[in-house]
Specification:
The protein has 386 residues and is α/β, with parallel strands linked by helices. The chain has 2 domains: 194 residues, 3-Layer(aba) Sandwich (Rossmann fold); 179 residues, Rossmann fold (3-Layer(aba) Sandwich). It is 32% helix and 18% strand. The chain has 12 helices and 19 strands. The strands form 4 sheets. It has an 8-stranded mixed β-sheet, sandwiched between helices. A 7-stranded mixed β-sheet has the order 11-10-9-12-13-15-14, with helices on both faces. Strand 9, helix 6 and strand 10 form a beta-alpha-beta unit. The structure holds nicotinamide-adenine-dinucleotide.
């Protein structure tokens, strides 16, 4: 049984799938671990530290991918320079575990099925208590929420906390967080620690208590429809509800010094919550950090990957925030993978057990088939349209 850790070739990706501490634990269990040379470099883990942990460092990418029983990655597989995809390197029957964005990248899911790879998507790990230690969406979203506040604070031409000085009193800054899921709650906690006055809004009323327990004010909007879908995620809301939401949100955006937007609906484009008209009403010098930039953005002015100034307001659309903190992002992701692999390795051998609800939910392709129903439905809908 051989686990292999790939070097990420996505330009913005600095994380590594396994850190040396986790490697050492697998080696102790009698599992062979291969690590591609330089895999941990951008997260400050050297080849030497992997070797010291008992891994074999491999310089040839094709050997590493082609001889792995379980291939571990962070970003979805990419096209390689020579026009071939990374997944073409995998052997039939091997297991690939990574973020795969299967609902947003249907052709990748199709290709993985064609290659007869067992693909496990970290986005599809159920958000259940039993799967909590494997929940990479949460571990990484929490980093994004934290970092968004730091970026917003650094761009703000003001203090965040209240200060009483000999030169006068500084009023605390106001931070408004839109979307109080994992990233939003971490953003609230971080902004509170920095001394800001924090307000938060989410269409799921269930988060009210969590927001309040972090010392923030929950902005309530009464909607005439169910806003929570199965699994606790948000639903896409009607036009009437969107309008109602925007009316309430406008006032809070207008008064905020920093707006952090994190709202997402799984499998859909991020909802547009901050309109151009709202940005136009903000004070010059205010800042918006749109964590949903990669999914289309919650703010109409967001340009993904760029910082722009519009009407005196700085709008930041960061891409892959967790990668900007690669040490802890890799440490947490590595722990998520190691917990998941306890379900896949039995007596030092690979065992894919679909009777386990976590494996069943997260496995996108197996033995040439697309197993995941949501991905199958999305593919059928796509085929019907095209
Ligand atoms: P997410 O990234 O999908 O969305 C972020 C937030 O945006 C959510 O809180 C959502 O309600 C909100 N949102 C969506 N549309 C909105 C709109 N129009 N206006 C305002 N807000 C909007 O969410 P997530 O952080 O991945 O969390 C999703 C769910 O999973 C939550 O219920 C969370 O509590 C739950 N969860 C459970 C576990 C567990 O039990 N182990 C672990 C993590 C998360």
């Amino acid at each position: 049984m051989r686990i292999a850790v790939a070097k990420e070739i996505e330009v913005c990706e600095r994380r590594v799938a396994l850190i040396p501490d986790t490697v050492a634990r697998f080696v102790k269990q009698g599992v062979e671990v291969w690590v591609e040379s330089g895999a941990g470099e951008r997260a400050f883990f050297t080849d030497a530290t992997y070797e010291a942990a008992g891994a074999k460092v491999i310089t040839d990418t094709a050997t590493l991918w082609g001889e792995a029983d379980i291939l571990l990655k962070v970003s979805p597989p990419q096209e390689r320079e020579n026009g071939r995809s990374e997944i073409d390197l995998l052997k039939e029957g091997s297991v690939l575990i990574s973020f795969l964005n299967p609902l947003g990248n249907l052709s990748l899911a199709q290709r993985l099925a064609e290659c007869k790879v067992t693909a496990i998507s970290m986005e599809m790990i159920p958000r259940t208590t039993r799967a909590q230690s494997m929940d990479a969406l949460s571990s990484q979203a929490s980093i994004a929420g934290y970092k968004a506040v730091l970026i917003g604070t650094a761009a703000l031409p003001k203090y965040l906390p209240m200060l009483t000085t000999a030169a006068g009193t500084i009023a605390p800054a106001k931070v408004f967080v839109i979307g109080a899921g994992v990233a939003g709650l971490q953003a609230i906690a971080t902004a509170r620690r920095l001394g800001a006055i924090v307000e938060a809004f989410d269409i799921r009323p269930a988060v009210k208590e969590e927001v309040q327990s972090l010392g923030a004010k929950f902005v309530e909007v009464k909607l005439e429809e169910e806003t929570t879908a199965a699994g606790g995620y948000a639903k896409e809301i009607s036009e009437v509800s969107k309008q109602r939401t925007q009316e309430v949100v406008t006032e809070h955006v207008k008064n905020a010094d920093v707006v952090i937007t994190t709202a997402q609906v799984p499998g859909k484009k991020a909802p547009l919550l901050v309109t151009e008209n709202m940005v136009a009403q903000m004070k010059p010098g205010s800042v918006i950090v749109d964590i949903a930039a990669e999914q289309g953005g919650n703010c109409a002015c967001t340009d993904p990957g760029k910082d722009i100034v519009w009407n005196g307001v700085t709008i930041i659309g960061p891409i892959n925030l967790p990668s900007s903190m690669p040490v802890h992002a890799s440490q947490l992701y590595s722990k998520n993978l190691s917990s998941l692999m306890q379900l896949l390795i039995k007596d030092k051998a690979l065992q894919v057990n679909f009777a386990d609800d976590i494996i069943d939910a997260a496995c996108v392709t197996h033995a040439g088939e697309i197993r995941n129903q949501r991905v199958r439905e999305a593919l059928q809908a796509f085929t019907a349209v095209s």
